[in-house]
Design brief:
Elements lengths: L1 E6 L3 H12 L4 E7 L2 H11 L3 E5 L5 H11 L4 E5 L5 H10 L3 E3 L5 H12 L7 H16 L13 H4 L2 H11 L4 H8 L3 H15 L4 H9 L21
Parallel strand pairs: 1-2, 1-3, 3-4, 4-5
Length: 234
Amino acid sequence: MIKVIIFSDIRIYSEGLSKVLSNLESIQVVGAEASFECAIDKISQTKPNVVLLDMTMAGACSAGKKIIQGYPEIKVVALSAPENEENIIECAEAGVAGYVAREASLDELIDAVKGTENGEIRYPPKIATFIFNRIRRIAQGTESYTKPAEKNNVATVLTNRERQISDLMSEGLSNKQIARNLSIEVSTVKNHVHNILVKLDVKSRVQVVALLKQPRRNQRSRSSDIDPLMEFSH
């Protein structure tokens, strides 16, 4: 039995996919989660074989990378992966084991789940071509190797709302205070804070503030002793 967790912030999508896959004898859906915090909690509790990651979510590649780093035995399959070369390369480098295109059938999704659980790499031909062409250009010297994360900066990677929230974070406001300031729910603020941490590849609010104060330096400071999940408790 292959244990699967679905990670998507589109409830109707995750619940529908969960019901369909749960009807299969070979697959057991042990969770359908909408946030990184809940997904990590469910992963630690159920130890799934495969995580189906909705690539339409903000920061999906970074979330997948963190799951793979924390649980290298788990296979991550990207759903509805945008056919954008930079995103594809970033996810391939992170260790995503399979991709299921937007136009793929349910049978193709099931094959990807079973294949990756067996240790196979499942990429659709078009996505595999992106990766092959990138490797070929690097080998031929016509393109230099630059990690996608090195191209990101605070000014371009965050949405307008995320920049609003990060600015308020830099003023020392808590999630509850930010929610009152922007007239939104605390849970919405928590989701935005999570997306900010994932997009900037940092582990604490302190590091976000540090990046905001140094906008011209593409610096990724990391702290191994700070738990990223603590950010959602404020």
